[in-house]
Amino acid sequence: MTPSSSRIAVILGSLSALGPLAIDMYLPALPVIAADLHVDEGMMQFSLMAFFAGLMLGQLFYGPVSDRTGRKPMIYVGLALFAGASLGCAFASSASQLAAWRFGQGLGGSIGMVIGLAVVRDLYPGRAAARLIALMMIVLGVAPILAPLIGTFITSLLPWRALFVILALFGAASAALVAIALPE
Q1: Alpha-carbon dihedral of residues 88, 51, 96, 166, nearest 10 degrees?
Q2: Which of 31, 54, 154, 182 is deepest in the core (most CB within 10 A)?
Q3: What is the pLDDT along the chain (184 residues), one digit of tens a residue?
Q4: Contact at 8 Å (CB) between 103 and 47?
Q5: Mind spelling out the 3-state secondary structure of 38-81?
C-alpha cells in the first residue's frame, strides 16, 4: 500500500530543506559572527565553502550506501550528523572550528537531496512520483527565499549561535517525522 503523498511530501520536504536552510539562514549573520570570532568576513565565507564541500561529498555516498542498508538508517545517520554538527557550530570558538563543523553539517544535510528522490522512486510510480518530486522542488525553491528572512529575524532577537541550535532542532524534528511516518 502506498502511503499518503501529502504526508510523504511534508517529510521529504523537510529533508530537502535542510541544505537551503543551513546555507541561507546564517548568511545575514556573517558580519556578526566574524566580529564575534575576531576574523574578517572572508574567513567566514570559507565556512560557506566548507559547507558546500560537505554537501557535495555526502551526495556521492549516501545513495549507494542506502541501496545496501536501507533508506531510513542512512537518513538517521545524515540527520544525526547534521544535528550534531549544527550544535558544534553553535559552540565553535574559532572560525576554523566553525568551518570544520559546517563541513560536517553539509555532509549530514546532503541526505535530504539524495535520499528524498530515492524514496519517491521506491514508493511511487509514474505520475504520483512526478507530482511528489514537483512538491519537493517547490520546497527547494521556497526555502532559500525564506531562510535569510528567518535568519535575520532570529539574529535580531537572539545571538547568532541560536541559528545553529534551531537548525539542530530542525534536524531532530525531521528525524522524528521520519521515525513516525516514513515507511522503509
Answers
A1: -30
A2: 54
A3: 456 777 788 888 888 889 889 999 989 999 999 999 999 988 888 999 999 999 999 999 988 898 899 889 999 999 999 999 999 999 999 999 999 999 999 999 999 888 888 888 888 888 888 888 888 888 778 888 999 999 999 999 999 999 999 999 999 999 999 999 887 7
A4: no
A5: CCCHHHHHHHHHHHHHHHHHHHHHHHHHHHHHCHHHHHHHHHHH
